[in-house]
Design a protein that fits this description.
The protein contains eleven helices and eleven strands. The chain is α+β, with helices and mostly antiparallel strands. The strands form three sheets. It has a seven-stranded mixed sheet with strand order 1-4-5-11-10-7-6, with helices on both faces. A hairpin with a 2-residue loop joins strand 6 and strand 7. Helix 1 runs parallel beside helix 4. The longest helix is centred in the N-terminal third of the chain and has 60 residues. The structure holds 3,4-dihydroxyphenylalanine. 3,4-dihydroxyphenylalanine binds next to strand 10 and strand 11.
Length: 394
């Protein structure tokens, strides 16, 4: 039933309240149904037409016929409550109807634009000579450091080693403590560590740093896998070294670890001798010199005969001094040793009782080996991204 303005006989506040409430309820109900411009126009005329619009009727039926004493009150109510509310609702509804119309138009045009684009594309393809050759994009090649990385990993994979990896942002525990670098031990100084800021509030072993070597992954892997294990661990490492011909704050290492019962230094020597021959050629000789690393005991550095001068220390017809081996005929390629029992103590509960198992480990710098292998004399070339340099290895 459509709303009609009632005649008022009772001008008490309660009666006026009820009449006003009924009127505003009708306004809300009717306006909510309005969706188009023409429906809006019908609504506006019904409520606001000078002649016989609802507002006009209210003036006639409520205000004009009100007794004198009630006139002020009714007038205020009509102006402040009814007229202002009717005008607000009409304005809001008009805005709503207009935006609906814009949206509808945009949708229709979007569709048209799509159809248009498709038609133009179809016309264009008729005018393109599809027998012309396409645009050739240069195909990239593997970076020399990555070639070396992959070659080293594959030598060990053929010996039955698996590949393991670990995080570059590491805790003090894995990078140092569990590798038998006690807190404040001077061996830590040799690592030029880059620490993550703001870690002072944590206990030392939980503090974060950029791993200085791939050795922490030895511990991480032994925590996850029971012996026997044979793994290689390639990865990026960081040290606080200014870049120069042989240093870079970021570089690459490949770590190795073999743990089993009765692993001996002889196994270490045989494995690495084989690997060096596979990498540098079967005529290469290996040579182990005593060294020190906290996590291996005994420790050694591995040297191979210089594959540039062949071990003689001199190069070329005029016997120029061989630079890569500093005329010694030997090149240092990695650090290695027998896993220190103190390291096994940290993973003892996972089957690594130092009384029952033994193992060897080694770690080498991939970038340095790539320099030697390709006869490059400045490490920085590897990291500058100059295509003219990199193209030579494609
Ligand atoms: N982590 C050592 C470094 O970066 C290299 C190394 C030496 C790794 C001996 C080993 C090892 O596993 O046994 O200087």
């Amino acid at each position: 039933m459509a709303y009609t303005v009632p005649k008022l006989t009772d001008y008490s506040a309660a009666a006026l309240d009820t009449a006003t409430r009924d009127l505003l309820a009708a306004l809300d109900h009717e306006s909510a149904a309005v969706k188009t411009e023409s429906e809006y126009e019908t609504l506006r005329i019904r409520w606001r037409a000078r002649k016989d619009g609802i507002v006009t009727q209210v003036n006639e039926l409520w205000l004009k016929s009100a007794p004198r004493e009630a006139k002020r009150d009714v007038g205020q109510r009509v102006n402040e409550t009814i007229i202002s509310r009717v005008d607000t609702v009409l304005r809001e509804r008009h805005d709503y109807v207009k935006s609906l119309a814009i949206l509808k138009k945009a949708r229709a045009e979007g569709l048209d634009a799509g159809i248009d684009a498709a038609r133009r594309a179809a016309e264009l393809s008729e005018s393109v000579d599809i027998s012309l050759p396409g645009v050739r994009r240069p195909i990239g090649a593997e970076h020399p450091v990555m070639q070396t990385w992959r070659e080293i990993v594959s030598v060990f994979q053929k010996l039955g080693y698996s590949v393991a990896e670990g995080p570059v942002v590491e805790t003090d525990y894995y990078n140092f403590e569990a590798l038998n670098f006690p807190p404040n031990h001077p061996a830590r100084d040799t690592q030029d560590t880059l620490f993550i800021a703001g870690q002072q509030a944590k206990p030392q072993r939980e503090r974060l740093l950029l791993r200085t070597h791939t050795s922490p992954v030895q511990i991480r892997t032994m925590e996850r896998m029971r012996p026997p294990i044979r793994i290689v661990i390639p990865g990026t490492v960081h040290r606080n070294d200014p870049p120069d011909a042989s240093h870079s704050p970021m570089f690459h290492q490949i770590e190795g670890l073999a743990v089993d019962i009765n692993i001996t230094f002889g196994d270490l020597k045989g494995t690495l001798d084989h690997a060096m021959k596979a990498l540098f050629g079967s005529s290469v000789k290996t040579h182990f010199r005593p060294s020190f690393f906290p996590f291996t005991e005994p420790s050694a550095e591995l040297y191979v005969t210089c594959f540039i001068c062949g071990g003689g220390g001199k190069r070329g017809p005029d016997d120029a001094p061989c630079r890569p081996c500093k005329q010694t005929g030997w090149i240092e390629v990695l650090g290695c040793g027998m896993v220190d029992p103190n390291v096994f103590e940290f993973v003892k509960d996972n089957g690594y009782d130092p009384k029952k198992v033994s193992g060897f480990a080694f770690g080498m710098g991939v970038d340095r080996l790539a320099l030697l292998k390709y006869g490059v004399d400045d490490l920085q070339y590897f990291f500058q991204g100059d295509v003219r340099f990199l193209q030579q290895f494609a």
